């Protein structure tokens, strides 16, 4: 297949995108994709609503069959005002088409969104198909009168291309598309996820929202039949196809069905940025040469829960606990896991010990308060491990720096023979976990804010005096990590400083994009320990 660019408005761009809500949900990740992946011609944003939305409580994503997912993210986004501010700072190259996805509950909300965001966009995609919201989404898509009103409201306010995103399970997808096109839509995107549907594990609803929309491998047949129906009825309208595209053959199948651009989302689960680059360049070569090498690049995704039983708990302080489980959990230093309490929620945790599994945590929000109620014999589910272990060069001298719960995050590194020094800080002796000791016990440095153990003050006070390392691993509260990096930057190269800062980690498999750092890197697949290298 010769790759045909797609003409959208006054731009001609490569016909590939990552569909809305996947990976590039933060402005920093959009900018990164724009710079790093030449094959992506259309940059589709997360669906933006007038007001900020927290979305649903985790779990928001589950894998119901290999490479097939069900999600109920619930349109988490910062709202149009904040998003517009982030777009002000965004640099999008001329050879990319910025497609801003918007989601309102009424035509008036779409009016506000268009007025605010159209000036930044090359085109708008109206999400009339989200299965995970109480108002708007699918309800609008199923009512041709509101579709007409919504689309004509938007098209009367902008002369940029307007795409309407359709759900596969609309009562009549052709009727909805007809209403949109008659009201001035210039293109269609199909399909959104299939839902709302349930997914249970051992009798429990996995998604806290109970129902979600299905994506990935299992929905391709449905996606193809929707695109075929749309192309049969609207031959001159461009269609961005998404839904289960994994390989060049899938792209060809959608092209034969009538699509002119292709969105690849779920197929990219677990891929780091370097792997995304390789995936897209291989896809192009596969399409040009008739090969099928992308299939080897798809990752096996492990989201399966395993049931554990609590055997012990230690209450180190009123709000600080260690739970001990009945089994071991295979993981490397630096990796993390998710703990799931059915009907309560799910959160990521560092692994204090693997054999048996031990988790240290402080009570901060609703989930950890429920977690803190667990007692011996109670059951709990874990999935993982996720993330990667930083590679520690053989002849380096390594210092570990941990604060608060971050001590749990560095404990597994202490086994490494290169560990020269361990710096630990907490607010008082009750919140201090003494990690495995370095070879020389004199190289363990303790600090507490109230002076109840070790130095009275901050762990970084000790680091600045006693450091004797050329490779650093930091884990703890953001302020501590930033202060540690400042000291360490004067002692070694940025690529020898690894730090873990708590970003919002929701899916762990690289899809939801919520864990992106300031450089647009998703810390769940590239980290959580990220080098300080820019
Ligand atoms: C985690 C996740 C979040 C999503 N968020 C949105 C969204 O905000 N807006 C939207 O129109 N579609 C959203 N979708 C649907 C995708 O854009 C896409 O239509 C769907 O996943 C099918 O493509 P795929 O099988 O390649 O993943 C989301 C899908 C996933 C998996
Ligand atoms: S992409 Fe979802 S948590 Fe990282």
Task: Give the helices and strands, then pairings.
Elements: E1 6-8, E2 11-13, E3 16-18, H1 27-36, E4 40-44, E5 61-65, E6 68-71, H2 79-88, E7 97-102, H3 107-117, E8 123-127, H4 138-141, H5 144-155, E9 162-166, H6 173-182, E10 187-190, E11 194-198, E12 200-201, E13 204-205, E14 211-216, H7 220-233, E15 239-242, H8 248-257, E16 261-263, H9 273-289, E17 306-317, E18 320-325, E19 336-341, E20 345-350, E21 358-362, H10 366-371, E22 379-386, E23 398-403, H11 406-411, E24 419-426, E25 444-448, E26 455-456, H12 459-466, E27 471-475, H13 478-489, E28 497-500, H14 523-526, E29 530-531
Parallel strand pairs: 3-4, 3-16, 4-7, 7-8, 8-9, 9-10, 10-15, 15-16, 23-24, 23-27, 24-25, 25-26, 27-28
Antiparallel strand pairs: 1-2, 5-6, 6-14, 11-14, 12-13, 17-18, 17-22, 18-21, 19-20, 19-22, 28-29
The structure holds flavin mononucleotide (FMN) and FE2/S2 (inorganic) cluster.
Bound molecules: flavin mononucleotide, FE2/S2 (inorganic) cluster
**What is the CATH homologous superfamily assignment of the largest domain?**
Aldolase class I
- Poorly predicted parts: none
Number of self-contained structural domains:
3
- The number of helices is 14
Please tell me how large the radius of gyration is. Answer: 25 Å
Overall pLDDT score: 94
- Which fold name corresponds to the CATH topology of the largest domain? TIM Barrel
Q: SS-based structural class?
A: alpha/beta
Largest sheet: 8 strands, parallel, barrel
With strands numbered from the N-terminus, the spatial order across the biggest sheet is 3-4-7-8-9-10-15-16
DSSP helix fraction: 25-40%
Number of DSSP strand runs: 29
CATH class annotation of the largest domain = Alpha Beta
Mass-distribution shape: elongated
CATH architecture of the largest domain: Alpha-Beta Barrel
